[in-house]
Specification:
heterodimer; A: 351 residues; alpha/beta; Rossmann fold; Alpha-Beta Plaits; 2 domains; eight-stranded mixed β-sheet; five-stranded parallel β-sheet; B: 111 residues; mainly alpha; Four Helix Bundle (Hemerythrin (Met), subunit A); 5 helices; elongated
């Protein structure tokens, strides 16, 4: 068995104080920190207040019994990763079966055998460690909204129609930058840029979905639904530009590589979901809207504007964001021209 | 059946130092009259669920210390109440006697 470095914080839930004291003392010998609760309701209140690594709960309790506690924890996305070991009387085999069917990590019969107790607690903590590592990996390599959906609902290939706003942002003159400067300077710049984009997109409820070199494609409205996805995307773009400009001034002050960006925004229906294979899949939004946002991003250079958007996005905005109409443009791959607008910024365009 | 199963108590003594074991026995001793009173009250009130739960706790505690006779009597009461009945006839008196014997034996074995 792997050695689990103590201390871990365990919640012991039992209405019987004789059992509580005995089990607590047995686990303290392992160096763990033991907190106790009298019944399921009290336990649930504590679990929602502070983090625990493991729950040991008795089946038989007043107010909220062990089954109800188990069920409540497994339904709660914030608690379902905590392993639960159930304890019950040795003559209640049916209760053991029910606990395991409900999703308990393990069970122990009472009176609790201290050797078994320690072994099962260690095994469950080891599983928790792996699960935590797994959650951490999902959070690192998937966007926050996607990670939350994965942890909540599990993973299934498949898609659905959704109306979203796609935002494509790109570093201006990136190819020239990479040719003129060394790898360390370029990676440092790209990391600073990615950090700004990901944090800003997430803070506006968007999904920073794909990073391709210097381009980042983000979606607003999927997988997390927001009725005001267009406004979120445009406000996010404005904030993104503000932050990259601040970053650029800092780079200039330090005599380092400069950064300027362009942002294209388009709204429309896409197919959203997981595509790939069972072993290698990714969350995607597929559709013309996504391509159009990339075309609009490239269009920023031609029109000399920083943030450019399509008519469908404009239609969802209202009046609070000042826009400059740039006329219609026929984008590559489109059959009809698209009315293009720029977010009005000081020093850009006609007053 | 013996009052206290020496093997069960021996394991407890092996696992825990005298101080911890003393504290656990103290809790058991304190809880015995509380549980007996609660069982009487539940019976008088016709509260099957409370009666079953208190019998369950008594059984569980008795099992912990190897108080075999007490555990068997408490288990019987729990089973009756589990069927939704409170027809325990005159079983509470022997339960009281067995619990007092268990308390005395534990205090003797672990002064």
């Amino acid at each position: 068995m792997n050695y689990i470095a103590p201390p871990h914080k365990l919640l012991l839930v039992d209405d019987n104080r004789v059992n509580r004291l005995l089990i607590a003392k047995t686990l303290q010998q392992l160096g763990h920190r033991i907190e106790t609760a009298d019944n399921g309701r009290e336990a649930l209140a504590r679990l929602r207040r502070e983090p625990f690594d493991l729950i040991l709960a008795d089946v038989e309790m007043p107010e909220m019994n062990g089954y109800e506690l188990l069920d409540a924890c497994l339904r709660d996305p914030e608690l379902r990763h905590i392993p639960i070991i159930m304890t019950s009387a040795v003559d209640a085999v049916d209760s053991i079966i029910r606990c395991i069917e409900l999703g308990a990590e393990d069970y122990l019969t009472k009176p609790v055998n201290p050797v078994l107790l320690r072994a099962r607690v260690n095994a469950s903590l080891e599983k928790k460690k792996l699960r935590d590592e797994h959650r951490r990996l999902i959070r690192t390599f998937a966007d926050r909204g996607v990670a939350a959906q994965l942890m909540r609902e599990g993973f299934a290939l498949g898609g659905e129609y959704a109306v979203i706003t796609a935002m494509c942002c790109d570093i201006r003159n990136f190819t020239t930058l990479t040719e003129l400067h060394g790898p360390a300077a370029v990676i440092e710049l790209v990391n600073g840029y990615y950090r700004i984009v990901i944090e800003t997109v997430e803070s506006y409820g968007g999904n920073a979905n794909q990073m391709m070199g210097d381009g980042v494609m983000s979606f607003f409205g999927a997988p997390v639904h927001h009725p005001d996805h267009a406004r979120r995307a445009v406000e996010c773009a404005i904030e993104l530009v503000r932050q990259t400009e601040a970053y650029d001034r800092e780079q200039e002050r330090k005599g380092k590589l400069r950064l300027s960006i362009g942002v294209g925004i388009a709204t429309g229906q896409v197919i959203a979901g997981y595509a790939g294979t069972e072993t290698r899949a990714t969350y995607l939004c597929i559709g013309d809207t996504v391509n159009l946002s990339a075309r609009l991003e490239s269009h920023t250079k031609e029109v000399g504007r920083t943030i450019v958007l399509d008519d469908a996005t404009r239609a969802m905005l209202g009046d609070s964001i000042e826009l400059e109409p740039l006329g219609e443009h026929l984008f590559k791959g489109k059959t009809k021209p698209v009315a293009v607008f720029a977010v009005r910024r000081p020093g850009e365009g006609k007053a | 059946m013996s009052v206290i199963d020496a093997v069960v108590l021996g394991r407890l003594q092996q696992e825990h130092d005298a101080e911890v074991l003393g504290a656990v026995i103290d809790l058991f001793v304190e809880d015995v009259p509380v549980l007996l009173t609660a069982l009487d009250a539940a019976l008088a009130a016709g509260d099957v669920e409370a009666f079953r739960r208190h019998a369950h706790t008594m059984k569980s505690n008795a099992d912990t210390f190897g108080a075999t006779t007490l555990a068997a009597l408490a288990r019987e009461l729990e089973e009756i109440a589990r069927t939704g009945s409170l027809r325990v006839d005159d079983r509470l008196a022997p339960l009281g006697a067995a619990s007092r014997e268990a308390v005395e034996a534990l205090q003797r074995l672990h002064p």
